[in-house]
Specification:
By secondary structure, the chain is an alpha+beta fold. It contains four helices and five strands. The protein has a five-stranded mixed β-sheet with strand order 2-1-3-4-5, with helices on one face. The N and C termini lie far apart (60 Å).
Length: 131
């Protein structure tokens, strides 16, 4: 095994610290849950998951957002699916999530507080949503 330089070790340590911070649940109110059942994975959920992680990091939201995986959400016909839980907004399940749409999801839903209407496939009925 090749020896690592001090700089390489520091870089590795920082990467692992970021990984641990990303997985920490304490104090994070926003959840992004990616459907990673076999149907989701076959439709590209892994790429969507990676794009969400990257977009959250780029927007500097890693301290506020927990990104999770789950099994099939029952919306196989619109896979990949992503559920977003954010205080002050309705819980929404988005479908047909590509890498590009995942970037929009973070920019619009999380940062701007706007729903991506073209990709909503499940949310509470209008009569129980608070305006």
């Amino acid at each position: 095994m090749a020896k690592m330089s001090l700089e390489q070790l520091r870089k590795l340590r920082e990467e692992k610290k970021q990984d641990l911070t990303r997985r920490e649940v304490e104090g994070k109110e926003i959840q992004i849950i990616v459907g990673m059942g076999t149907c989701g994975i076959a439709a590209g959920a892994k790429e969507t998951f990676d794009a969400v992680v990257k977009a959250v990091e780029e927007k500097g939201l890693g301290e506020q957002v927990i990104i999770r995986q789950t099994g099939c959400m029952g919306l196989c016909y619109v896979e990949p699916t992503v559920e977003v839980v954010k205080p002050g907004m309705p819980t929404v399940i988005y479908g047909k999530m590509t890498k590009d749409v995942a970037k929009d999801l973070v920019a619009k839903h999380l940062v701007e507080g706007k729903l991506l209407d073209d990709h909503i496939f499940d949310r509470p009925a209008a009569d129980i949503m608070k305006k």
